[in-house]
Structure formats: structure tokens, C-alpha cells
Design brief:
With about 270 residues, the protein is an all-alpha fold. About 80% of the residues lie in helices and about 0% in strands. The protein has a two-stranded parallel ribbon with strand order 1-2. The protein starts with a strand and ends with a strand. Keywords: Membrane, Transmembrane, Transmembrane helix.
Length: about 270
């Protein structure tokens, strides 16, 4: 397993990620990550406090949260998943080509590079060029550079290491390549199931929030609206209680998002 650190990607990096595999974010996607948090934060705050200025302020906080945190995490996750799928396809195609004993490694890499997408395509082309007209030292360096670019993908790292050994030392460890490829496939399936499970957790979380809001509405219905506002919402006790409640909701919401947007199943976070 590899260790990874959190990184706050810039807007330029986010845009580059969103178009790397030919599927740029649409305007409605940008709007969704601003408007939905804005309306949710503003609506809940107004429901609790019955002050428009507080609702608008909370809505601006929610919209900023959606833009600066949720949108970036969503694009980053989509990019990393697409890149992982691309590396998985490379491993499968490469292994299939190398089962033919007459297939030179350079030709196999060239064939895979033609069908690759994203940043992996250019890296494979660069590797192919190095293999054609460089000495052994440069070739070893090229394979190491490709490994370092994807060091968090343990099986891909091992696979590229084995390819380097095959090319430099002339070994034909096709069985080892197959084992590494098969394990990469298993990790991919595990990650896909993990993502599917999180969709159900997302539904459960939304249900929990709705029940929480329903509880508040129930309290309001036990009074008239005017009594709720005068006796509770605008009273000091109500203001403090609602502030604590809103803070807890946001904390739980943020904790949920941290887990929801974490798709890594083979990495350890520090």
C-alpha cells in the first residue's frame, strides 16, 4: 500500500482534469454544486432562525463550500477513476499482446499507446521513443519515471517494473505479468463495488437529514408560526440551540463528504 497526502487542486487543474478524457463538466454541473448547497443551507437556516439575512449568509457559505470543496473533489475523483480504468485497460491489452512470443515489447507498447487516452497516452509515447534510440541507462530511467508517475497504483507500478526487467534483461516473465494484471482487475472490481455501496449510504444520509428537518417542522407545528418565532427562534435560548444544531449538521455533512469522496481502497491516508 502507498501513502498519499491531500492536495487542494487549483481551478485550472480542475478544468484540465474535467476535459482530460473528453468529458468536460457542463454548465449545469457547475450550477448544481453551487445552487443546491446554497438552497439547502439557506432553507434550513431560515427554517431555524426566520431571519432572511442569516439565510442568505448561510446560503453563501453553502454555495462556497459546494464550489471550493465538493466540485473539486467530484472532478478529482472522476479523473482518477477514469485514469485508473485507462491503466487497467493498458495492463489487460499489454498482457494479451505479450502472450504472443513473437511480439516485441516496443511494438506492444506502441499498439497500446495508439488506443490509450489521457496523460497515459503521452507517457507511453515518450517511453516508446526512449526505447527506440536510447542506451540502457536512459531506458531504465524512462521506466522508473513512468513508475513514479503512478506510484500510488501499486500493481501498475509493479507491472511497469516487470516490463523494464523484460526489456533490459530479456526475461519473459509473462506469468508474473498475468498475476499482476489479474490483481489489478480485482482491485478495480473492489473499488467499483465500494463506490456502489457509497451511493446507498448517500441515500441513507439524505433520509436521516430529512427526518431531522421533519422533527423541526414537527416542533413548529406544535405551536403557531408566530409563537415559534417569538418564543423560540428569536429568543436567546432558541438562537443558541439552533446555532449548535446547525453546527452539528454541517459537521456531520462535512464528515460524510470526506468519506463519500474518498474512493481509494488501496491507499492509506496521512
Amino acid at each position: 500500500m502507498k501513502f498519499r497526502k491531500k492536495k487542494l487542486y487549483s481551478l485550472e487543474e480542475i478544468r484540465a482534469m474535467s476535459i482530460a478524457f473528453g468529458q468536460p463538466l457542463q454548465k449545469r454541473e457547475y450550477a448544481k454544486f453551487i445552487l443546491i448547497p446554497f438552497m439547502c443551507f439557506a432553507g434550513l437556516t431560515y427554517l431555524l432562525f426566520h431571519y432572511w439575512w442569516m439565510a442568505i449568509l448561510a446560503g453563501l457559505i453553502g454555495g462556497s463550500y459546494g464550489w471550493f470543496y465538493q466540485l473539486r473533489r467530484k472532478v478529482k475523483n472522476d479523473y482518477e477513476m477514469a485514469a485508473y480504468l485507462e491503466r487497467n485497460r493498458f495492463l489487460n491489452n499489454m498482457t494479451q499482446l505479450l502472450t504472443n512470443d513473437d511480439m516485441p515489447l516496443i511494438e506492444a507498447i506502441s499498439a497500446c499507446a495508439q488506443y490509450a487516452e489521457g496523460e497515459l497516452k503521452q507517457k507511453l509515447i515518450d517511453l516508446q521513443i526512449t526505447l527506440v534510440d536510447s542506451d540502457e541507462k536512459e531506458i531504465v530511467k524512462a521506466f522508473k519515471s513512468l513508475r513514479n508517475a503512478y506510484k500510488n497504483d501499486v500493481q501498475f507500478d509493479q507491472y511497469i517494473e516487470q516490463l523494464g526487467i523484460m526489456f533490459v534483461e530479456g526475461r519473459t516473465s509473462i506469468l508474473t505479468l498475468k498475476d499482476t494484471k489479474d490483481y489489478h482487475n480485482k482491485v478495480l472490481l473492489k473499488q467499483q463495488r465500494f463506490i456502489e455501496d457509497k451511493q446507498q449510504h448517500k441515500k441513507d444520509f439524505r433520509t436521516m437529514i430529512l427526518y431531522s428537518i421533519g422533527f423541526i417542522v414537527g416542533i413548529m407545528l406544535s405551536f403557531t408560526l408566530k409563537k415559534y418565532v417569538d418564543i423560540y427562534a428569536h429568543a436567546l435560548v432558541g438562537m443558541i440551540a439552533n446555532t449548535v444544531y446547525l453546527s452539528i449538521i454541517f459537521y456531520v455533512y462535512h464528515q460524510f463528504n470526506q468519506r463519500y469522496f474518498d474512493d481509494a481502497v488501496t491507499e492509506v491516508r496521512i
